[in-house]
Amino acid sequence: MENLLRPLIVVGGSVLLTLVIGWATDLLLRKADERHGEASLWGLLRRARVPYQLVLCTALLRASYDQARVLTEHRVGIGQTLTLVLIGSAAWLAVAIAAAVVEASYSRYANARAQRDPARVRRVRTQVTLIMRVVAAVVGVVAVAAMLLTFPAMRAAGASLLASAGILGIVAGVAAQSTLSNLFAGLQIAFGDMVRIGDTVVVDGEWGTVEEITLTFLTVRTWDERRITMPVSYFTSKPFENWSRGTPQMTGIVFWQLDHSAPVQAMRGRLRDILREIPEWDGRACDISVTDTTPNTMEVRALVTAKDADDIWTVRVRVREQMIDWLLREHPYALPRVNTADATLPPGVNGARPPGDGSPRRAVEPHRPDRG
User: Fold this and answer.
1) Which of 307, 201, 204, 189 is nearest to 245 (CA)?
2) Residue (of 98, 170, 105, 175) closest to 135 by Cα position
């Protein structure tokens, strides 16, 4: 009877005690979260209850397993397994706690400065993301090393491993040169403020928003919802456009190819009327200029402004569309057309039309007296 009750008491007691402690801890965190409001540290720490309970249960079982006297012939193997699980769950708990602390700190910072300095908030977000990835990687490496050192054979080989660490480091550095360059490029991007999560960039002719930055690659979400993934070393070795660098305000350009008779002055007034109806226009500037001419058309350019890249795109397309619609209705002659009329000769040439005569006439070749 004792052989049956002892394992049940030890194992069942460990599990029951884990559930009770976990429930009490979760209750305390919930109460603290209700007092401190949204995105508090206590509410975020509740996400770590699974690794927390796993650490408790494994530690209790590891400490009391010898008293259970069950499967004694496999005592060493079961003890080793519990140790490995304890190390892994402790690493999981450490990463979860670090993530909760960092996220709570970032949330308070973002809520305080989101309106005043959104660029700074994006920069801190990028740095926090990469720091958490570095922390997770370091904790993972330490946990794996601790697991390996629990095996007697690995401890015995420790001296030889340390002796050959220099050679292995050189070999690994040469073999993983590309990976290491991306790793250092990721840290350079995070702390050099070159590009941040949420920035609007143009890379290889593709316009999009930086969606994710890791230690080795960066993802850009394009305007048509495609994802472009490239190594972070690209941004440290090649030029790219960052439309969110500094102030997000932007100036946009709209071009039209129009006939030489287009009413440019009336277009200036119409542009102001159109922009007043577009809420994305920030009111900083608007202008129309003739920037080029060809034998058949002239190039008319409009300058408009907006608070960021998304709004400037909306302003440009709406100005282009509404101006063409207005020209079609009010000044159809201003649109480019193929000129099939006969050329007008300079005044004084025989056969030239008099000024103001709009009737089509063909140019008449000057009369040559008959030499015969």
Assistant:
1) 201
2) 98
Are 194 and 209 in contact by the 8 Å Cβ rule? The answer is no
pLDDT digits (tens, 9 = 90+) for 190-234: 666 678 788 888 888 888 888 887 777 788 888 788 888 888 777
Cα gap 132→97, rounded to integer Å: 11
- Using CA atoms, how far apart are residues 359 and 265, in angstroms rounded to an integer? 28
Each residue's pLDDT tens digit, 112-167: 665 566 666 776 777 777 778 778 888 888 888 788 777 776 665 544 544 454 54
Task: Please give the structure tokens belonging to residue 173.
Answer: 């550095």
Domains defined along the chain, listed by start? 2-113 (no CATH), 116-131+151-243 (2.30.30.60), 250-334 (3.30.70.100)
In degrees rounded to 5, what are phi and psi of residue 219?
A: -115, 130
Half-sphere exposure of 197 (CA within 13 A, CB side): 16
The whole-angstrom separation of Cα 344 and Cα 358 is 11
Which residues, 6 or more positions from 211, have their beta carbon under 8 angstroms from its beta carbon?
197, 219, 220, 221, 227
One-letter identity of residue 5: L
CA dist 85 to 62, 147, 233, 281, Å?
10, 9, 37, 59
